[in-house]
């Protein structure tokens, strides 16, 4: 075949392909970008028009299917997405956050148990992390000593021990834990879900709250403390029969009063305050709803079409309540679990095997992609530009330019 005819045939084939694709496809969908010392991939225009035929399998059961696993055979550049450490969607703000040499490193392999409540104690330069069952009833928690090079990971037991801290924050020299579980005999003593403090210098714990007018909380999941000292927390369902509806509350340690702030979410989970104190964010992880039948099947299989969004609220009534609930972000992967707000107001959430960074209006700026399901994260270091990410099977560290809020010197 003469080469002109061959070229014409190739041209014809390409034209047919091009004609059957939607106008608006602008290849490539993805390309490497940012500092060449880092593994950064930019997704152009959010890949908002993909060439046919593309398909993303829904996540199901315990299997997460990430954005990068979307099949897009007619744009080979998309294969870059799955392997990136950082996926940038908004190039200007995303690359600025990443800075000159962003890095992601897996620092510790840990068990498949849920790892939660990472809390940085600046005076000790230590990161406290909790570990939930298995085995059921296990009481020692973890601490990462950042004064060592490389950092070390060890277990410690508080006095008295606290079962299953699931959320944590730092306020006024103390770690505040949302204790998520309990019954009448954990290691020989009764413990109930509620709020506890840990003095990181003495390891002593104090119970601040363990009931709502005599009823047990279900699973106190996450919390923050505002500048007045009030503790805002979420209480979701687990696989035990509940005595209370799932809800979010504000607890005032000065008076002992607990006040409901929202009861509209299926599984209120992460909760966070904006640096100016004007907005509260709460995530709903209703896609994972444990069996609440006594003796029913354990676990919380994932439901792709279930509730899994972050909601934004405005603070009212002298800062004691929230109103104006609106969706901020529908998780693009799994459920939005851990939730925190950076010093600049960007909202950060752990969802599936990664961490998403959104602006205050819910626009996705970038995603950190990890090798394990992320539960939560905390900023460390003098500048608060190191992010420690904890989850099932791993503890990882990110160096970047996005600063955390200074919990030791709060602004709100
Ligand atoms: C690429 O697109 C063309 C036209 O839509 C389609 O016929 C072909 O099957 C696609 N290729 C793959 C691998 O999906
Ligand atoms: C990375 O970029 C720098 C500055 O542009 C360049 O000098 C260097 O050769 C590049 N390194 C690699 C491995 O491409
Ligand atoms: C974690 O485990 C993987 C797989 O066994 C191994 O390749 C890696 O070196 C380990 N990383 C650390 C930090 O221990
Ligand atoms: C209390 O919870 C622990 C940990 O899950 C479990 O081992 C123990 O059997 C429970 N005890 C009762 C009385 O339910
Ligand atoms: C608290 O626990 C840590 C970690 O196990 C230990 O190094 C420290 O000595 C303990 N402090 C006190 C006052 O017991
Ligand atoms: C998943 O969630 C949707 C929306 O809440 C609900 O309609 C559906 O029944 C759920 N599926 C399962 C298997 O629970
Ligand atoms: C409003 O909150 C501030 C700070 O918490 C408090 O000092 C003040 O008494 C409150 N005002 C009212 C009317 O309760």
Verbal overview:
The structure is a single chain. By secondary structure, this protein is mainly beta. It has two domains: 3-84, no CATH class; 91-399, 6 Propeller (Neuraminidase), CATH 2.120.10.30. The chain is built from two helices and 29 strands. It has helices at residues 3-20, 91-98; strands at residues 30-32, 40-43, 86-88, 103-109, 115-121, 126-131, 141-145, 152-156, 165-171, 174-179, 183-186, 189-191, 194-198, 205-209, 219-225, 231-236, 247-252, 257-262, 268-273, 279-284, 309-316, 321-330, 336-341, 347-351, 354-358, 364-369, 373-380, 386-392, 394-399. The strands form seven sheets. The chain has a seven-stranded mixed sheet, with helices on one face. Strands 4-29-28-27 form a four-stranded antiparallel sheet, with no helix packed on it. It has a four-stranded antiparallel sheet with strand order 5-6-7-8, with no helix packed on it. A hairpin with a 2-residue loop joins strand 24 and strand 25 (354-358). Bound molecules: 2-acetamido-2-deoxy-beta-D-glucopyranose (NAG) (7 copies). One 2-acetamido-2-deoxy-beta-D-glucopyranose binds next to loops.
Would you spell out the secondary-structure blueprint of this structure?
Blueprint: H1 3-20, E1 30-32, E2 40-43, E3 86-88, H2 91-98, E4 103-109, E5 115-121, E6 126-131, E7 141-145, E8 152-156, E9 165-171, E10 174-179, E11 183-186, E12 189-191, E13 194-198, E14 205-209, E15 219-225, E16 231-236, E17 247-252, E18 257-262, E19 268-273, E20 279-284, E21 309-316, E22 321-330, E23 336-341, E24 347-351, E25 354-358, E26 364-369, E27 373-380, E28 386-392, E29 394-399
Parallel strand pairs: 2-3
Antiparallel strand pairs: 1-2, 3-26, 4-29, 5-6, 6-7, 7-8, 9-10, 10-13, 11-12, 13-14, 15-16, 16-17, 17-18, 19-20, 20-21, 21-22, 23-24, 24-25, 25-26, 27-28, 28-29
The protein binds 2-acetamido-2-deoxy-beta-D-glucopyranose (7 copies).
One 2-acetamido-2-deoxy-beta-D-glucopyranose (NAG) binds next to strand 4.
């Amino acid at each position: 075949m003469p080469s002109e005819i061959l070229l014409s045939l190739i041209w014809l084939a390409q034209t047919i392909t091009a004609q059957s694709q939607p106008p608006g496809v602008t290849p490539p969908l993805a390309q490497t970008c940012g500092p060449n010392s880092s593994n950064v991939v930019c997704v152009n225009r959010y890949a908002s028009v993909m060439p046919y035929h593309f398909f993303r399998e829904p996540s199901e059961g315990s299997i997460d299917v990430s954005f990068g696993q979307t099949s897009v055979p007619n744009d080979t550049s998309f294969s870059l997405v799955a392997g990136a450490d950082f996926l940038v969607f908004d190039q200007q703000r995303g690359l600025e956050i990443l800075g000159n040499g962003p890095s992601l490193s897996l620092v510790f392999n840990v068990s498949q148990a849920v790892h939660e409540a990472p809390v940085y104690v600046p005076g000790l330069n230590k990161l406290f992390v909790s570990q939930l069952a298995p085995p059921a009833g296990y009481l020692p928690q973890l601490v990462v000593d950042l004064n060592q090079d490389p950092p070390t990971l060890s277990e410690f037991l508080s006095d008295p021990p606290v079962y299953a801290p699931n959320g944590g924050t730092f306020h006024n020299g103390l770690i505040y834990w949302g204790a998520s579980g309990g019954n009448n005999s954990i290691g020989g003593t009764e413990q109930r879900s509620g709020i506890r403090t840990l003095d990181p210098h003495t390891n002593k714990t104090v119970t601040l709250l363990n009931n709502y007018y005599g009823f047990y909380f279900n699973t106190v999941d996450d919390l923050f403390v505002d500048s007045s000292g009030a503790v805002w927390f979420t209480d979701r369902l687990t696989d035990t029969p509940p005595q209370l509806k799932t809800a979010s509350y504000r607890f005032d340690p000065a008076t002992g009063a607990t006040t409901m702030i929202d009861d509209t979410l299926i599984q209120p989970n992460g909760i966070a305050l904006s640096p100016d104190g004007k907005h509260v964010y709460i995530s709903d992880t209703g896609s994972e709803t444990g069996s609440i039948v006594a003796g029913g099947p354990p676990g919380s299989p994932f439901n792709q079409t279930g509730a899994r969004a972050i909601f934004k609220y405005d603070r009212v009534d002298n800062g004691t309540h929230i109103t104006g609930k609106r969706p901020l972000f529908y998780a693009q992967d799994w459920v939005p679990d851990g939730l925190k707000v950076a010093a600049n107001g960007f909202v950060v959430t752990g969802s599936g095997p990664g961490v998403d960074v959104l602006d205050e209006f819910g626009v996705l700026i970038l995603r950190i992609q990890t090798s394990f399901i992320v539960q939560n994260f905390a900023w460390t270091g003098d500048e608060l530009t190191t992010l420690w990410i904890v989850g099932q099977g791993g503890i990882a560290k990110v160096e970047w330019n996005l600063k955390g809020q200074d919990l030791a010197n709060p602004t709100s």
